[in-house]
Structure formats: C-alpha cells, structure tokens
Amino acid sequence: MTDLQNERRLIWLGYGACALAGCxxxxxxxxxxxxxxxxxxxxMVLYRFLFACLGMLPILLTSSRRDRQPRWTxxxxxxxxxxxxxxxxxxxxxxxxxxxxxxxxHASLMVGTMPVLLALxxxxxxxxxxxxxxxxxxxxxxxxxxxxxxxxxxxxxATGPALTGDLLVVLSLxxxxxxxxxxxxxxxxxxxxxxxxxxxxxxxxxxxxWVLAVDGLPxxxxxxxxAWLALAASGILCTAATTLLWNWGIHHVPASRAxxxxxxxxxxxxxxxxxxxxxxxxxxxxxxxxxxxAAAVTLTARGQKLDPEVILE
Length: 313
Prior knowledge:
- The protein is mostly helical.
- The chain has one domain.
- It has helices spanning 2-25, 28-35, 41-66, 74-99, 104-111, 114-125, 132-151, 163-186, 192-214, 225-252, 255-258, 264-277, 283-302.
- The model is unreliable at 153-160 and 303-313 (pLDDT under 50).
C-alpha cells in the first residue's frame, strides 16, 4: 500500500512539474520581446542560454558531489550531444527566426500543435499507449489553445503572417520532439538533473560557436537594464528551471500525457500579450481556456491508472 501511495504521489508531482514548466515557458515570448529591442535573434538566444548555464552550474556541482551517477557510455554521450544540438541551437534559432517572420498569433497557434506531435511521437517511437479518451483530451487541449489565440484582438500590423515563418516554427517543434524523446531515453539510466545540466551546457557551447561565427560578439554596453533582467529571467526561469522541471516530470509520467501541459505556454503567452497590448479576450478565448483545463484534469485524473511499464522509476 505504501508503494502504491508513493507511486501516485510521484505521478501527481510529475504532472505538477510539467504544469509549472508550461507556465514558465509561457513567459518566454514576453521576456524575449523585451530583449530583442536591444539585439538580434542570435545574440538574444545566446545570452539566454549563458544565463541558463549560470543557473545550472551550482546544481550540477552539488549533485555530482552528493550522488554516484553511472558512467556514460559512448552511445549515451552521442545521444546527449545530438539531443543538445537539436534542443538548443537548432530548435531555438529556427523558432525565433520563424517568430521574426510571422505574427504572434500564428506562431502561438503553431506552438499549440506540440502536444499532438508529442503524443504521436511518443506512441510511434517510445511505445507509449494512449487510448481514445487520451487522444480526445489532447485534441481538445490543442483546439483550446487555438481558440485562445484566435479569440484575442491584436493591434493592426504592417506585416502579416508569412508561410515561411509558420513553417519554421512548425519545424522547430518537430525538432523539439526529438529532443524530448531522446532526453527521456537517457533518463532511464541517468538522473533528470544530470541529463538537463549536461544537455544545457553542451548545447550552449554549440550555440556559442555558431553565433560567434555568424553574428560576431554580442553587444554589452548598449544593452539596457530591462533587457539584462529579461535575459536573466528567460535564461534562469524559462530555460534552466523549465527544462529541469519538464525532464523530472516526464521521468515519472508518460510524455504523451504530459504533453497536454505544453498548451499552457501558448495560453499564458496569449494572455500576457493581451495584457501588454491592451487587447480583450473574446468568448472563444474563454471556451479555449475551459478546454485546456478540462483536458488537463482528464489526463491527470486518469493518470492514476497508468500501466506500470510506462512509468520510469
């Protein structure tokens, strides 16, 4: 009975970690927008991950002294480096380049498709099982994110959405799917903290080499205090903390069911945009929020009946 209670506690904590990660990810567009006033995409992403590394170093050093971790095999090191390359320089540079070429509404709508992509990928590549109710919940959650985005009134813009930008955002989400699934396979052997820290450090090193070669040295003196604060928040809160929370969460719950919480990101991002721009949410946005909450409650409540083989201990 004790083991069952502990299993249920870990499941609820796992869902809570994924939900909190989704909330913090939802603030990333806001902080990124503040930082982009003073620099380009490459430099903004680089600073974001440099701050993320600063946030992860103390945790990594403390963990390495306290815990005895299994040695990394050559194959696992290769998987880690590939996941880091996909999840940091490739995904983030593509996504923010896409955001620069399309509208916020379109980009947010594209992000809302991630849970369906994640459920599909976890079912095909990770062998996770998702029944009809689970699929319906994911579809409802994605539809809810779309309604929230479409329900907000935005200011007129001189530039409209572009197909190239939308496709770049979708491509970045597909790449993020590979990062999530590879990280989950690594966490079957290594702790979520170790996988997260090593992934961020190695991915940031790749990003540093690329940005310096393509964009040159990042600005320092011309960066405002607001931009520095935004960069620090996006690196420590929206990157280091969220990646750690997400990796720990999917270590205890199936990635296909945890994917519903990714829709918090476009929902919260849309809400922040409304608050910043003075827009108003219409009835579609309220319906969309209800769909997301209903889907989250459905998946978490049914998470107590997960098959033991899909829960990583």
